[in-house]
Amino acid sequence: MSDLQTVVHGASELVVGPASDGGLRAYDDGAVAVVDGDVAMVGPSDDVRREYPAENADSGIDASGQTVLPGFVDPHTHALFAGDRSDEFAAKLRGKPYQEILAEGGGILRTVGAVREASDEQLVANLTAQLDEMLEHGTTTAEVKTGYGLDTETELRMLDAIEAAAADHPVDVVGTFMGAHATPDGRDPADYVDEVIEDQIPRAAEQGVAEFCDVFCEEDVFTVEQSRRILEAGREHGLAPKIHAEEFTRLGSAQLAAELDAVSADHLLHANSDDARALAESGVTPVLLPGTAFALGEDYADPEQFRNAGAPVALATDLNPNCYSQSMGFVLALACNGMRMAPADALLGATAHAARAIDRGDGTGTLREGTAADLAIVDGPSHVHVPYNFGVNSVDAVLKDGAVVAG
Ligand code: NIG
Ligand code: FE
């Protein structure tokens, strides 16, 4: 007979996940019982407590006045980096464009320099610190990209660091190889793309940490054709495609994502309704990153066109030195206040739909019988309070596989 671990009960609202009509399924005065790390039952507190008396549990958690959510899923981060780019923040505020900073060897390329110089231990410590902060903010599953090595040796070191940091951390980490993040060392991009395809991708795939291959398809970075070759090569080696699409310029990268049946297309600041339809038809999850638009002073993406096309919108932090936030709660505030998303849609975007964007659409980001008991207990009587009460960390406690890991 299995052990009853935890019963969280009395929550003003307990969010389960998407309802069959696409809305949010939730219980008032809800409870969740955890057995062996998994959700054994969710429902109204009275029903759950009858079946699973809190007195029999290792721990009973009274969540009255609070809201229980599935732990946040952050499906797009560059959380592993080194160095400090706060001076670029000041330069951007004075009006210097992101791409100009990159063209001068700053931005991504500057972080590449710092990562190449960092020791393996330093890389693991840096990522661990970021994961700690994410967990405190309610994230229980996160994607982490490489892309600050931009040579085979350092890209593989990044993957090793992702594996090592993840091994000792409650956050579930999903690795993405992104050797095509920029062209390093003043090299010819065509020549660098060949290296990514012929050397980096096979070695990264063999190393086994990455599940996805991502590319920054952008003017003066990688063309649609180069991106296609890179993503096809990734797929041949078992890495499913993701793409940084239509961020500063509309190049046709969203259409490429649709054509390749990518797992996700991310950013999409300049995507139009044709792109949205193409993504929806191919089952590609659009990932919107309002923190990036906020940090760059750009116009937000338009979530409405994806919704109208029938593509469930996912949200992510894009945590990186240009968009420095670990907080999915802050992303929800931007999604609502900046992109005018309904709080329920934003919450689904940060949980169940985010899970789809990293191929975890099997239950991650939801709380129902049999899913991992990954949850965040937040202050406030409903999920609406997370974006409504912006600028604070509403997360009071985080449970991973039923065990309290933060708060
Ligand atoms: O998703 N757009 C490209 N890559 C990152 C930024 C990385 C950086 O500036 O270090 C992004 O925003
Ligand atoms: Fe990114």
Automatic annotation (TrEMBL):
Matches recorded under NCBIfam families: hutI (TIGR01224)
Protein origin, superkingdom: Archaea
Main subcellular localisation: cytoplasm
Encoding gene, per UniProt annotation: hutI
Listed GO biological process terms: L-histidine catabolic process to glutamate and formamide
Record has Methyltransferase as a keyword: no
Keyword Repressor attributed: no
A single GO cellular-component term on record: cytoplasm
Name the record gives this protein: Imidazolonepropionase
Biological role stated in the UniProt entry: Catalyzes the hydrolytic cleavage of the carbon-nitrogen bond in imidazolone-5-propanoate to yield N-formimidoyl-L-glutamate. It is the third step in the universal histidine degradation pathway.
Pathway involvement of the protein, from the record: Amino-acid degradation; L-histidine degradation into L-glutamate; N-formimidoyl-L-glutamate from L-histidine: step 3/3
Domain Amidohydrolase-related: 67-405
Entry note: cofactor: Binds 1 zinc or iron ion per subunit.
Cofactor: Zn(2+); Fe(3+)
Originating organism: Halobacterium litoreum
Pfam short name (any one): Amidohydro_1
Annotated positions binding Zn(2+): H76, H78, H244, D318
Catalytic activity: 4-imidazolone-5-propanoate + H2O = N-formimidoyl-L-glutamate
Residue sites binding 4-imidazolone-5-propanoate per the record: R85, Y148, H181, E247
